[in-house]
Amino acid sequence: MVGPNGNESSATYFILIGLPGLEEAQFWLAFPLCSLYLIAVLGNLTIIYIVRTEHSLHEPMYIFLCMLSGLDILISTSSMPKMMDIFWFNSTTIQFDACLVQMFAIHSLSGMESTVLLAMAFDRYVAICHPLRHATVLTLPRVAKIGMAAVVRGAALMAPLPVFIKRLPFCRSNILSHSYCLHQDVMKLACADISVNVIYGLIVIISAIGLDSLLISFSYLLILKTVLGLTREAQAKAFSTCVSHVCAVFIFYVPFIGLSMVHRFSKRRDSLLPVIMANIYLLVPPVLNPIVYGVKTKQIRQRILRLFHVTTQTSDP
After folding, report:
1. DSSP H helical ranges for the chain
2. Across residues 109-130, what is the average pLDDT?
3. CB-CB contact of 92 with 180 (8 Å)
4. N or C: which end of the chain has fewer CB within 10 A?
5. CA distances (Å), 233 to each of 65, 83, 125, 180, 246, in order?
6. Which residues are in the G-protein coupled receptors family 1 profile domain (predicted)?
7. The whole model's pTM is what?
8. Comparing 32-41, 97-106, 182-191, 259-268, which segment has the lowest mean pLDDT?
9. What is the DSSP string of 31-68?
């Protein structure tokens, strides 16, 4: 932003515009968005509760699923309350430090979720390609260490982010084009050279999302090679254990890659497309993941039906 003498100054706050061009409709659009958020939270909490209470589900695949559900709750919660504040109460201001915290949370949690998806792919690879070694390779203590590694990796990759943002002077504007703070959006407001931020963003995407998606693809090529040598019955069983994870991978990576591409090549800051894609990226995966696993995973589906059956029985007079 510009100081009183026209000099560069640091930003003390930003203004989140919400949905450009739809300001008058934001109040009503908040209701379905809030409903989706509640569905995401309740659905993922249900997954966590079922896996925690059912001892038969204390296996690596379901523990990784719990990690995924927990991250989905945190990712959606890092942005949705502020979005509802904007849409319902027109509270568009966010302090600079709060923006940094939100930015760090969103990007680091995304990195953690990518690592968990990679760990889930590794679990499926060992279970299908080396079934006799699965119990010894993926022990529960080792699964816990993988979860901790995902947290450390996501946080470490984003640790330089606040430093790279705080060093920038903001003299053009303090209006962000999204409903929450994103690195790609904030750095474009700077009136200094942002090459360091651009290079840092590319390094993070390549070393995290790019590497993870490549390793996931490679693991499924190995799985496919193994499955094609099995009987039809064994093939169907193997594919059924993978389909939920494949859906989760596409649900996470497709919006992320699409959003990154739009930010890299879009020239218009007032465009509605990046904003919609950003909201889809943070809200749709947390909503769809528990639905996909609840429908496609037999063990979880049975527990959900049993939980509902018990609830309806106990509520009857």
Report:
1. 26-53, 60-77, 80-89, 96-129, 134-137, 140-158, 161-166, 183-187, 195-204, 211-227, 232-265, 272-296, 298-315
2. 95
3. no
4. C
5. 25, 48, 18, 48, 20
6. 43-293
7. 0.90
8. 259-268
9. HHHHHHHHHHHHHHHHHHHHHHH-GGG-SHHHHHHHHH
